[in-house]
């Protein structure tokens, strides 16, 4: 079922907030049917949405009337009370980022799950809404261009390539490629580690610090570690962007010409384009992985022997 999604970024001044709320009403009039409204509203609904008593109750009332008039349902945020911090000591914590939906959208996506991610590069915590979990396929070996600039790369390749001896040249080539791939994977894990794992660990630690400072003030060592994790995350994100640029197969752009999201979209397109969902063998459609693998093996075995 198709549905609408409107992403907002609320203004700061009260007069602009009033116009902002009216604009949301106008957008809803142009978006009939299932609708999701999400983003940074720069408004709060309830007293408990802020960790201090500095509240603008008039704007809170206007925001609540909008939600009631449009019959919006707020998607429950699991495990967190606040999504923004002013990064001061002690911090001001506010629940500014929300996801609303209409009843018909909720009926179609009743199993959705909303949670906060770590505020690694912003004072806002990103929101992750999972509507339909997908199976993550096993990752294939990828040769990374930046490996060429690291110490030990050529020695690792030479040692792995020369470790395989086989009289059959075709089998020897296959075994050498497999041995080199395994050696490079192990060498990369030891030299730079798994970037995604490091980023995931950093996000988890920052998220725990974000959660902790909702209940108490972070100690100086905790505050120092949180800042260092954010700095380290920026470097890891830059390296991840370099890897994504390579896998996107866009060679006409130079470093820093585009952001990671652009290259990830290109990677997603390539995966969709290259993925084999089914094979037709003698008029029969095969969709399971084992059946397609056997059909491909049989075809090339008959063709090449």
Automatic annotation (TrEMBL):
Residues 9-124 form the Endonuclease/exonuclease/phosphatase domain. Gene3D superfamilies: Endonuclease/exonuclease/phosphatase (3.60.10.10). This is Endonuclease/exonuclease/phosphatase domain-containing protein. InterPro entries: Endo/exonu/phosph_ase_sf (IPR036691), Endo/exonuclease/phosphatase (IPR005135). The lineage of its organism: Eukaryota, Viridiplantae, Streptophyta, Embryophyta, Tracheophyta. Pfam families: Exo_endo_phos (PF03372). It comes from the Eukaryota. GO terms for molecular function: catalytic activity.
């Amino acid at each position: 079922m198709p549905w609408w999604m409107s992403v907002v970024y609320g203004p700061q001044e009260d007069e602009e907030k009033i116009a902002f709320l009216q604009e949301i009403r106008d957008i809803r009039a142009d978006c009939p049917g299932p609708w999701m409204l999400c983003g940074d509203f720069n408004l709060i609904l309830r007293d408990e949405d802020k960790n201090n008593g500095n509240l603008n109750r008039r704007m809170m009332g206007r925001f609540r009337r909008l939600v009631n008039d449009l019959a919006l349902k707020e998607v429950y945020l699991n495990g967190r009370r606040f999504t923004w911090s002013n990064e001061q000591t002690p911090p001001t914590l506010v629940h500014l980022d929300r996801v609303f939906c209409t009843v018909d959208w909720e009926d179609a996506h009743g199993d959705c799950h909303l949670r906060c991610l770590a505020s690694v590069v912003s004072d806002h915590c990103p929101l992750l809404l999972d509507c339909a979990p997908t199976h993550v396929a096993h990752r294939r070996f990828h040769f990374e261009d930046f490996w060429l600039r690291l110490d030990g790369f050529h020695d690792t390749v030479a040692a792995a390539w020369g470790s395989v001896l086989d009289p059959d040249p075709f089998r020897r080539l296959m075994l050498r490629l497999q041995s080199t791939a395994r050696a490079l994977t192990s060498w990369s894990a030891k030299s730079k580690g798994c970037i995604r794992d490091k980023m995931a660990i950093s996000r988890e630690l920052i998220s725990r610090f974000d959660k902790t400072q909702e209940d108490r003030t972070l100690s100086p060592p905790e505050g120092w570690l949180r800042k260092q994790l954010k700095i380290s995350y920026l470097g890891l994100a830059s390296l991840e962007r370099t890897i994504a640029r390579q896998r996107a197969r866009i060679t006409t752009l130079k470093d820093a010409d585009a952001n990671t999201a652009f290259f990830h979209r290109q990677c997603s397109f390539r995966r969709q384009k290259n993925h084999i969902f089914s094979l037709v063998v003698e008029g029969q459609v095969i969709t399971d992985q084992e059946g397609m693998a056997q059909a491909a093996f049989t075809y090339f075995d008959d063709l090449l022997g």
